[in-house]
Amino acid sequence: MNAPHDALDLPLDGIRAVQANAGTGKTFTIATLYLRLILSHGLMPAEIVVATFTRAATAELAERLRAWLALVDELLRGADPASPRDGEDSERAVLRRVIGQALQTRTDNGSPASLDTLRKRIDEARLALDTAQISTLHGFCFRVLAELGFEARQSLRPEFDHIDGGNDDLMNRIIWYSVQKSKPYPRKYAGKDEGDD
């Protein structure tokens, strides 16, 4: 995986799974996609879900996002923030490209995004970062069950705190349902067939 290239070219609609071996740039890729969603689409942290396998990956990603939001804020307050600089590290170069892409997007009224729009989005995202849904897979499932367990006919206090083979089916159903959140939860996915009472 060529993380910087892929992260800048991936479409931002739908669901994305980032898979790779250790040390190949997953955190870099996810953080880049996350910033693109904020800058290009105006999404806030509470509207973006990131689920990882380990608590260490979750902590690393949250730390990276906090640092990058601050760095993008700094770049946006400088002169010509989307232009590459000679001798600049790859991280800043990628962030400048993310800013450049965002400046090419259209706002709700159809006009190109302005530096003021991007600054506002970054300021709001920095303030809202504590609402970010960045967690482990089991943490994500726990949150969904806590919020929607009654609708899913599941316990409101899930009995798992880590991923194991016994919870795979339940977690698959939770993830499926959270993606389909706008639709009523089908009874067959709540452990009952359509005809059961």
Q: Can you offer a commentary on this structure?
A:
- 24% of the residues are buried.
- The protein has 197 residues and is mainly alpha-helical.
- It has helices spanning 3-9, 26-41, 55-76, 90-104, 115-128, 137-148, 168-179, and strands spanning 49-52, 133-136.
- The protein has two domains: 3-131, no CATH class; 136-190, no CATH class.
- Helices cover 50% and strands 4% of the residues.
- Strands 1-2 form a two-stranded parallel sheet.
- α1 (3-9) runs parallel beside α2 (26-41).
- The termini are far apart.
What's the gist of this structure?
This protein is mainly α. Helices cover 50% and strands 4% of the residues.
List keywords for this structure.
7 helices; mainly alpha; globular; disordered C terminus; 2 domains; 197 residues; two-stranded parallel sheet
Structural domain count: 2
* Biggest sheet strand line-up: 1-2
Order of helices and strands: HHEHHHEHH
Q: What's the shape?
A: globular
Taking the sheet with the most strands, its summary is: 2 strands, parallel
Straight-line distance between termini: 49 Å
Beta fraction of the residues?
under 5%
The portion of residues assigned to helices is: 40-55%
Low-pLDDT sequence parts:
182-197
Rg over CA atoms: 19 Å
Which class best fits the helix and strand makeup? mainly alpha
How many beta-strand runs?
2
Mean pLDDT across all residues, rounded?
Answer: 77
| Total count of helical runs of at least 4 residues | 7
